[in-house]
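Practice problem: Ig-like domain-containing protein
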Amino acid sequence: MSTPPEDPRLRFVRTDPASRSDDPDLTVTLPPAEPAATLHLPPPPSSAAGTGTEVGAAEGETRFGPGVPGASGTADDRATEIWRGTLTPDGPSGVPARRRRPWWRRELPSLLVVVAVVVAVVLGMRSCAAARSPLHVVGATVTAPEAGRCARTVLVTGVLRTDGNPGTVDYRWKRSDGTASAVLHQEVGENVRSSEVVLRWSFDGRGTMKATATLEVLSPDPVTASAAFTYHCS
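Answer key — C-alpha cells:
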C-alpha cells in the first residue's frame, strides 16, 4: 500500500524559537487559493441600525431648544419647527407655516367696495338734488290775535307758501317800534306747500300802542306780509 503524497497546505511552522534567521523551517509556502475556497463574510451590523440612535451620540445626553439635530419627523423635530414658527401645530412636518395677513389687508377688498358704494350713493343724491327744481316762495300771510288787556306777550303767526320743492327760506321779523330780528332760516321739505313761523312780541307797562309786525322773506324770493294789532293797559 502506497503512501499518499503529502499536502503542502498541511505543513506546520515550527513554534520553537529559531536559532538562526536563515532557518528553512521558518518559511511557509502556501499554494494559490482556489476561487471555490474563498468565503465572503457579511459586514458587521451597525450598532445604530436596531436602536435608531445616531452613531457617535453621547449616551445619556439630552438637549432642548431649536437647532438640536434629531431624526427627521420625530416629535422633537416637529416641536422645534413649531417653536420657530415654520410649522403650524396642525400642519404636516416640513411644510412652512403661512403667516396670517393683518386684518385690514384681509378686509381691504370689502372696505373698498363699501367705500365705493357710499361714494356712489352720495354722488347720486347730489345729482338728484341738483336735478330738482329750486324752491320758490309764492306768498306769505301774517295774523295777530286781539291783544288782551295788559297782555305780557302777543303771539304773531306767519305762514310761508311754497311750490312743493325742498329747500330753505331765509326771513326776518320787523316790528313797528323799529326793531328787527336776526335772519332766520326755515327748512321746507319736499311736497310741503306751507310752513308756519312765529313772532313773540313782549310788552311791559301801561298805556295804549298800535303795533305792526312785518314778515320779510329774503330768499329765495322776496315776499313781504304784515299784520297790526293794538296793545292797551290802563
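Discussion: The radius of gyration is 59 Å. Students who identified this feature from the C-alpha cells alone can consider the problem solved.
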